[in-house]
Design brief:
The protein has about 210 residues and is mostly helical. About 80% of the residues lie in helices and about 0% in strands. α1 packs parallel to α3 and α2 runs antiparallel to α3. It is globular.
Amino acid sequence: MAFRFLPKEFDFFKLFNQQAQFAVTAATLFNEIVSKGQLTQERVQQMRDIEHQADDVTHAVFDNLNKTFITPFDREDIHALASELDSVVDMIYTITNRMFIYRLTEAHPDLAQLADVIEKSARALAVAVENMEDMKNYHGALEACIEVNRLENVGDSMRDAVLGKLFDTMPDHIQLIKWKEIFQFAEDVLDICEDVAHVVETILVKNA
């Protein structure tokens, strides 16, 4: 059955879906930037705008949470889900901005592969969040969460392989330090996506 206890004026599910879509938008833009080597000041600003819009939705979740007594599921889970979804966009913006500061503006094939995994993970999260509202879609949401977990493992392996390659082939220690940080940040995005999936799984189990 669907969650039906929430007054219409506080549609948390609509806000969660908006947050998830901002994560997809940010991940898609990041993938495009690193795949094509199109990191410019304008692109950084574009990512910053996405991050600010996502922040506005997160604040709306928290504001509505403070204004309503009856919620569709536990208040701490609402807070956790909104916070973790927001963190996905925050970290993608952080990577983009840091790359620009470090002048790492060229296309990087290994980072492009990891960015593709990030985009797939964000899209899987969007499916999971979208299917949360109606418990008829319980299995669809759960399968999407499992996919996010799988992609996080893929990202771990990719990061480790790339770091090994960097240490073997990059003689410039400054550049090595820069790229090591960027690849770790990229894997951190997948960790956060997995955290979101865990929150969704917890909500599904509690309300099954």
